[in-house]
Amino acid sequence: MTISGTSSVLTLISIIFLSITPSSTSNQITDTEIKHLCSKTSNLVQCFKLLKSDHRTSNVDAKGLSEISIDLTNNKANKIHSQLNSLVKATRDLHMRNIYNSCSKNYDDAIRDLEVAKKNLKSDAYKNMHAQVKDASEEIKSCEKMFNGASSSDHAHIKKKNQYLEFLVSIVKVTADNLNMKDDSDSETILRDLCSQIERSKECIDLIKSQLSRFEDSGCNNVAGPVIDLAREKAEQIRDMLRELHEDSNDDKFKGKYESCSSNYNDASRNLEEAKRSLDSNDYQNIPKQVDDTNDELEGCRREFDENAFDPAHIRDRNKEFGLYVDLLKVAIDRLLQRNESDDCNYYYDGGYDYGWSYRN
């Protein structure tokens, strides 16, 4: 009875311990998610069975699943590579020996590509994996083409094994693409958070959704770079439009306004170029001044076309467009400076440094 009571107490303690211990599988990928990924290959059932055959799959996240797919593919590639090397030595047929030798070199390169892909995976450089996976696939296809017209002499069934390995590489591609999608989603979350600090947040979100690819490699610490690039491109676009209006206008009053605004936007572009140089050289403290100067140039053009002025070319609308980029840039720089101090991608953003900035352009 005492033993039974002690056992019950120990069981209860174990349950309590498990309930308060953080789970190491909070990001564990589910069978449903694996099947969804496998549906993007040519054989869902075979893909799922293969991935589940590795004991690690029972307790793994998306990154771990990608590693498993690389390991499975690399193991198979090494086995075929060893077989090809043996065939080179054992085959008397000169033509087939040349094919096996060529394929051996293809497999050597494919294995190296997969190893580099795994290194990129380990270092979270997911976007760099695409090139290596593609190169590995091309090496296998090159080997497969060698057997066109020689299938009757392929007694070792290398062509069939090539096709299976190509299928394995397709699984690697799917799992790597999945990681890139998660990265893109993270970038969008960061940018949506920035837009939430701006009065015209919905317009800001619409803007970044159309330009999301520009932020792919920016990481959590530096969305400011792509924002500066976008703002500068918009400034130069509006400047060029104003120059054309200045040349085409027959009204001296408007010619003067267009020339003045063109000069404003040219200076704004130059200020943004300086801000980008400061950013690239990690001279962050100078950037707020350069952004302020950009905003001053915007205000200069706004004065030329205030609410009561006749505005046949809708310059007020162009100023409003550029103002959105400037507001987004202010928030991005605020975030960059705060994060530069904290080095934390998950810190709480409290609204920025006190530069006297408003986000209502």
Automatic annotation (TrEMBL):
Domain Pectinesterase inhibitor span(s) in chain numbering: 29-175, 186-332
Keywords attached to this entry: Coiled coil, Disulfide bond, Signal
GO MF annotation: an example: pectinesterase inhibitor activity
Position of the signal peptide: 1-26
Keyword Coiled coil: yes
Keyword presence, Signal: yes
Pfam families according to UniProt: PMEI
TM region positions: none
The organism's place on the tree of life at top rank: Eukaryota
CDD domains (UniProt xref): PMEI
Coiled-coil zones: 104-146, 228-278
SMART domains to which the protein is assigned, alphabetical: PMEI
Family: Belongs to the PMEI family.
PANTHER family for this protein: PECTINESTERASE INHIBITOR-LIKE
Name listed for the protein in its UniProt record: Pectinesterase inhibitor domain-containing protein
